[in-house]
Structure prediction request, 209 residues.
Amino acid sequence: MKRLAVLASGSGSNLQAIIDAIKNKDLTDVEIAIIVSNKKDAYALERARLNNIEDVFLNPKDFNSNEDFDKKIVEVLKTKEIDLIVLAGYLKILTDVFINAFENKIINIHPALLPHFGGKGMYGKKVHEAVLKNNEKESGCSVHYVTLGIDEGPIICQKKVPVLPNDTVDTLAARVLDEEHKLIVEGVKLALSCKVIACKDPTKYNISS
Prediction:
C-alpha cells in the first residue's frame, strides 16, 4: 500500500479528487496517511475529518523561520512512512529543508501549462489573469515534481483547455479546475509507478503524457 501525504491551504478540491479516486478504485493500493495545512480554517482539514484521515494544522506564526516550520512538517511526515507528498493548493513556498528531505517525492499541481505562467507570485487567479492579459489561445494545468526552483521541476503530465473569447478569470479558472481534478489523479499514478521516484535525476526520464 502506497502512502500519501497531502498539503493544502484552501478548500482542497484536488484533495477531494484524490479521495474520490481511492474510494472509486481508480487509485488502487493507495491511501492518504495524513493531511497537513498551514491554515486553521482550510476546508481541506474538514475533508480529512469527514473521511477519517489524520489531519494536522501547523501555524507558521509559531515558528521562528520558514525553515523551522518546514522542519516540523518533515518531522511529522517522517513518522508516517510516506511514499509521495502531494501539494494540492498549498500556498506556502517549500524551503530546501523540506525539498531535500523528500527528494523526488513531492509533486505539485499548477493551473497553467508550465513552463509558462509559473514561478514566484503565480498562483490561483493571478495565473488566469496573466493568461487572459497575454491573449493566450489555450491554457491548462500541469503536475510536476517540486524542486528548489519554483514551478521548475520536471513535468509529469499536462492537460490543455481552450481560452474562449468571452472568458473571464472565473470562467477560465473553473474550466482549468475541472481538468485539475482529473490530472492530479493521473499525476499521482504516474509518480507512484515510475522509476523516477527513486532516481536522483528525474530529467533522465520522459514521463509526460
Notes: The chain has one domain: 2-204. Residues 169-193 form the longest helix (25 residues). Confidence is low (pLDDT under 50) at residues 195-209.
